[in-house]
Specification:
There is one protein chain. It contains 20 helices and 2 strands. It has 461 residues and is mainly α. The protein has a two-stranded antiparallel sheet.
């Protein structure tokens, strides 16, 4: 067990109540705390007796352990949990809500974003925690007012369109590296530095209304991309902060279309973290608020996210309806339709790929494999992670159809591709395959695949 403990004088009743509310056993909570600690680079070996000592004897673990306990309960309860609430208070450094504030006033919003990017230290965040309630105020405020009036700003350096183009190029480079190598690629840190050293000073510079709107939109997309990379690596608390700031800057830009895209991205994170109902509401809200403002492809992406959330919820009817509308919106795109370049990857073939996963999640392998035949091949050198995930989804779909041979073949291909990327999210798809192989665990080839998968994922963790 990592670290000695300080002994309090009485049982920790607040902690006991929260554990009960979270529906956690002592053994499952201990395992979750160890996992969160490992993701933060700290080795712990807590067991059920450790949790029992915290609850019954009021013992408080040393080091960062109280933060990990709070993060584990936060994940289970779906809302922020402080050290005070778990009865393990100590003076915390900094503002725990920094980056989650969705300021009402545009000038305050710019100040909050610039201050956050200048001061955030990702190493000090409990990056695996996710609280769906942290999105409540940002989503409500964006839904109420998705666009602010344009403003000018007098400050530091004069900002021109060349500066804005530099931010767009940084975002595009980040998207490319993320697709090839996953959110843990070496470029991710440099893009985060771009927000700190380039974007933050520009936000506090001097610019006209027109340049200011363009600056806010570009910075919103850069923040969204950085958030997505963090999410891909399982750094969920960090990702939430970047997404919230991206949504706020989209509103400052008066850019409802970008706001819709950011909120849709937040919806994807939310359902993948186990909150499909809330995610469906977010995606539907993004679509409804952006109708009449956003391009068909952007609206189609929102509907796709809604379909995926409904599928995770097990609602086949709602998932099918949202997917059909997404496809219809893509069909409506013509040669003269407004069409943002940054979403050009979302085509009918990409929709078919996601539809495969939707029906896999609905345990309908026949429909999943039918959609898979409509998906075009993607170049592995450009979309490494997406190709590997697609293969993994196909593998699990075949296993649902009781086709072990095809499932193992595709699973092996997925493993060969995904061992090249640093992506906690993508590696989760490999674990889905090993879970789906459970009925055949006694088969030698299944045991061999499971061993290969564990070895490969450990090497890229």
């Amino acid at each position: 067990m990592a670290g000695s403990q300080r002994r309090a004088r009485q049982p920790n009743e607040p902690l006991a109540r929260l554990i009960t509310a979270a529906g956690a056993s002592h053994i499952s909570l201990a395992a979750q705390i160890n996992k969160i600690a490992a993701a933060a680079g700290v080795v712990t070996r807590y067991e059920k007796t450790s949790v029992a000592n915290w609850v019954n004897l009021g013992m408080i673990p040393r080091g960062r352990a109280p933060e990990f306990v709070a993060a584990a309960l936060q994940e289970r309860l779906g809302r922020p949990v402080s050290l005070q609430e778990i009865g393990m208070y100590r003076r915390e450094r900094g503002d725990a809500d920094m980056g989650l504030d969705f300021a009402r006033d545009p000038a305050d919003a710019v100040h909050v974003a610039a201050t956050y990017w200048r001061t955030v230290d990702r190493r000090k965040l409990i990056t695996t925690g996710f609280a769906v309630s942290a999105y409540a105020t940002p989503v409500m405020r964006w839904m109420t007012t998705p666009a602010d009036p344009a403003v000018t700003h007098q400050g530091g350096q004069r900002v021109g369109r060349g500066d804005v183009e530099d931010l767009w190029q940084a975002a595009e480079d980040a998207r490319l590296w993320d697709s090839r190598y996953g959110g843990g690629n070496g470029k991710a840190n440099s893009v985060t530095e771009c927000l700190k050293l380039k974007a933050a000073p520009l936000l506090t510079g001097t610019y006209t209304e027109t340049v200011g709107k363009e600056l806010f939109t570009a910075t919103a997309e850069l923040s969204r991309v950085v958030g997505w990379s963090a999410f891909d690596m399982g750094q969920h608390e960090l990702a939430q902060r970047h997404f919230v700031q991206a949504l706020r800057l989209a509103r400052a830009a008066g850019d409802v279309q970008t706001g819709c895209y950011v909120l849709t991205t937040m919806s994807l994170q939310t359902f993948l973290r186990g909150f499909p109902r809330e995610a469906a509401d977010m995606a539907e809200g993004a679509y409804e608020r952006a109708k009449g403002h956003a391009a068909p492809r952007v609206l189609a992406f929102a509907k796709l996210a809604q379909a995926r959330a409904h599928a995770r919820e097990g609602d086949a009817r709602a998932a099918g309806a949202a997917l059909a509308l997404s496809e219809s919106l893509l069909d409506s795109i013509g040669p003269h339709t407004q069409d943002p370049e940054w979403l050009a990857y979302f085509t009918h073939a990409r929709l078919a790929t996601d539809a495969t996963e939707i029906y896999r999640d609905l345990a309908n392998p026949k429909a999943a494999l039918t959609w898979a035949r409509q998906a075009d091949a993607m170049p592995a050198g450009r979309f490494t992670r997406a190709v590997g995930i697609r293969l993994a989804v196909l593998a699990t779909s075949h296993l649902q159809a009781r086709d072990l041979t095809q499932g193992l073949q595709l699973g092996t291909q997925a493993l060969q591709v995904l061992r090249q990327v640093h992506s906690s999210r993508a590696h989760g798809y490999v674990r889905d395959i090993t879970t789906a192989l459970a009925p055949w665990r006694a088969e030698p080839q299944v045991a061999d695949f499971t061993h290969q998968a564990r070895t490969a994922l450990a090497a890229t963790a």
